[in-house]
Amino acid sequence: MSGSTITISNASGNVDFTGSTGALLTSLGLSTSSNYVAGVPGSVKSVDALVAAINSSSSLTGKVSASNDGGKLRIQNLSTADLTVTGASNTTSAIDGSASTDTIKGNDVRKSLVTQYNDLKDQLDKFADDASFNGINLLRGDNLKITFNETATSTISIQAKTTAGAATAIDSAYLGISTLANSSVDSDTNIDSLTANLGTALNSVRSQSSTFGSSLSIVQNRQDFTKAMINTLQTGADNLTLADTNEEAANMLALQTRQQLSQTALSLASQADQAVLRLF
């Protein structure tokens, strides 16, 4: 026996029942009448036939899997719980038909996957709780209201919502991700169902991400518009208040020169008029 499998040795390619009770078949839920000759010590059954009987049993589907391992019956435990097989020796791995038992350990790979799944589920909730900024956490269902003008007539509210429009937190409960037990992955059917649930959860996250992205685009457009308006007003204010001192000094000197020339011209004109009057 190794890990989650048990291999029953028989080099002849047959499973030799040395007992008369068919305890192994009974423990697996198989009919002794079709797979074992009751009351006949040493009766022989083909390994391939027994493999087919185990794998075709509806009561064993998703629990155990049998195979022919070089003429040996190999039984693999698919579930996470230990499986006790009656009628097989735990020392020789031979079928003795007695009340002795051998244990096939639970599937450690699936147990490990359950642990990883639950750890990721916990990290998802912690991430949602820690995703806050300035006291606002959109993943926790908080409402972020942004005002675009001074009169508060242009605003936008950003909040995670359900398809019905109710505020919600984006956590494992909303996404339908619950804590798993080891038995939750015992069957392939359950695993397929869990995979489908995770697909639905991913679609929900993508939908919320798209909604947040649309709101972000609106805010960025308004931000770019506001920045452009600020730059325009700032340029206009600078043109009104800021000046080149050299240029303005030259303009002032020119104006002063013009004023002095005007005053001189007026003085000369006045003197000319007085000279004419002296002739009379």
What does this entry look like structurally?
This protein is of the alpha+beta class and 280 residues long. The chain has three domains: 5-106, no CATH class; 110-238, no CATH class; 243-280. It contains seven helices and nine strands. It has helices spanning 23-27, 32-35, 47-56, 108-130, 172-175, 188-241, 245-277, and strands at residues 5-8, 14-17, 43-46, 64-68, 73-77, 83-86, 101-104, 144-147, 155-158. The strands form four sheets. A three-stranded antiparallel sheet has the order 1-5-4. A hairpin with a 4-residue loop joins β4 (64-68) and β5 (73-77). The longest helix is centred in the C-terminal third of the chain and has 54 residues, at 188-241. The radius of gyration is 45 Å and the shape is rod-shaped. The model is unreliable at 1-22 (pLDDT under 50).
